[in-house]
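2024-03-11 09:14:02 INFO worker-7 job=invfold-0412 stage=load source=structure_tokens
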């Protein structure tokens, strides 16, 4: 399922085949489209389309190009239209200093008025910003506190992306990311954390490759999803799930899963979510600020029994590997791991466990011989280059935990064929020193990027 969060289906470009365009979108897996008003006529058209099709929602606003047409009557008109059914946002609004079709000072005033309306109606804001990064950031900072929204068809650099995300705004990527020379947006598409990423077409404009030159339409969003999946090293299915969850969270269209998943697919692997408990409290841990990883809800209602996990796996050979992971420390459930891992091995699957390396401290004995023959690979979080940093970053519940993790790594090599230690690239962690520790232990090191989870 995909959501095109920004298209202009009211526009003349669709007059001859609008019905077919909507049908093609649905046939391509685009469940919902948000059609965006860019002037009062377009906003009314958006509301009418949303009233006619279950798959369409509307946003109301006046584009910065048309800011000169805005007057005090516009405020009331936008407010009235915005209260019609299936209106989910205010915009597009913002600043466009590239074309300057309206004077800059007028654009700023009109942008502020839209923000005011969005705040008053508690609707998210859809922001257009082109060659106007500094003013856009200043205005959002001063006027949009408490308002959420999205920077549509993002064209800024990664620094601007970080700043708008800090304000809680999403980043929506359009077909420009598929263009060969679009270096900056490709870089941005690579670094945005999953929980801020959205997809759009901006149809009828900006057709993605390989449709460039043709009129754009919502079904083409799949090409943009493919390009982003390639850049981020995940599947289109992953991008569809991630961006759909984000669009639902921002615009409240569609349903989010209420229950946490016990088995969830990312790329070609299946992950098992066995517990949400952990013996660390890492400052960077995503479970403290979101229920979602790669669009999967991982907040468990209960800890699953071995039979439930086996049932959820189905055929282990369908996956590259089965990974015990989830939102907590898997070795807190050692018996379940052993039972399920034995079943996976008997049925031809490959087993990996992602752990914080506390297994022996949790159980007060050496558990590693018990994993022999059941586990193919262990990924162990080292997370620091010395004891003091480990205490500060991971806040472990055990005394001497850093030394305990090092002992666990040494011992693990005797019973598990592949051991990888991981470290997150936090500013105060000495990656070179971590590499030397890994070399001395005779294991490989993988450096994980902060915010890149799953
Ligand atoms: S060890 Fe993993 S699950 Fe536990 S707090 Fe740290 S990052 Fe989170």
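2024-03-11 09:14:09 INFO worker-7 stage=emit residues=454
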């Amino acid at each position: 399922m995909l959501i095109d969060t920004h298209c202009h289906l009211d526009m003349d470009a669709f007059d001859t085949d609008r019905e077919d365009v909507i049908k093609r979108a649905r046939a391509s897996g685009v469940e919902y489209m948000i059609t965006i008003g860019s002037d009062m006529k377009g906003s009314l058209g958006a509301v009418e389309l949303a009233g006619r099709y279950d798959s369409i929602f509307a946003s109301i606003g006046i584009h910065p190009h048309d800011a000169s047409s805005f007057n005090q009557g516009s405020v009331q008109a936008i407010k009235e239209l915005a209260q019609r059914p299936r209106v989910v946002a205010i915009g597009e609004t913002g600043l466009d200093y590239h074309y300057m079709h309206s004077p800059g000072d007028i654009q700023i005033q009109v942008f502020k008025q839209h923000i005011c309306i969005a705040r008053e109606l508690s609707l998210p804001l859809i922001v257009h910003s082109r060659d106007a990064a500094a003013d856009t950031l200043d205005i959002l900072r001063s006027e949009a506190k408490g308002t959420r929204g999205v920077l549509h068809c993002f064209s800024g650099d990664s620094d601007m992306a970080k700043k708008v995300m800090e304000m809680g705004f999403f980043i929506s990527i359009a077909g420009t990311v598929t263009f060969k020379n679009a270096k900056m947006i490709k870089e941005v598409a690579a670094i945005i954390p999953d929980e801020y990423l959205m997809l759009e077409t901006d149809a009828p404009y900006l057709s993605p490759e390989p449709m460039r030159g043709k009129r754009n339409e919502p079904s083409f969003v799949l090409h943009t999803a493919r390009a982003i999946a390639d850049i981020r090293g995940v599947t289109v299915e992953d991008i569809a799930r991630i961006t759909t969850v984000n669009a639902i969270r921002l615009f409240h269209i569609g349903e989010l899963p209420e229950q946490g998943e016990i088995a969830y697919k990312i790329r070609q692997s299946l992950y098992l979510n066995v517990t949400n408990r952990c013996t660390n409290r890492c400052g960077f841990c995503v479970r403290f600020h979101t229920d979602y990883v790669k669009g999967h809800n991982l907040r468990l209602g209960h800890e699953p029994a071995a039979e439930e996990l086996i049932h959820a796996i189905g055929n282990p050979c369908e996956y590259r590997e089965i990974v015990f992971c989830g939102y907590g420390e898997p070795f807190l459930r050692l018996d379940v791991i052993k039972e399920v891992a034995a079943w996976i091995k008997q049925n031809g699957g490959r087993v990996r466990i992602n752990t914080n390396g506390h297994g022996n401290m949790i159980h007060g004995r050496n558990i590693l011989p018990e994993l022999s023959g059941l586990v193919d690979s262990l990924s162990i979080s080292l997370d620091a280059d010395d004891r003091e940093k480990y205490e500060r970053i991971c806040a472990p519940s055990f005394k001497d935990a850093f030394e305990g993790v090092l002992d666990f790594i040494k011992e693990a090599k005797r019973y598990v064929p592949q051991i990888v230690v991981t470290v997150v690239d936090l500013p105060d962690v000495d990656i070179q020193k971590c590499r030397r520790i890994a070399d001395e232990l005779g294991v490989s090191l993988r450096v994980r990027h902060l915010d890149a989870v799953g």
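2024-03-11 09:14:09 INFO worker-7 stage=report msg="The domain at 2-251 is CATH 3.20.20.140 (TIM Barrel)."
2024-03-11 09:14:10 INFO worker-7 job finished
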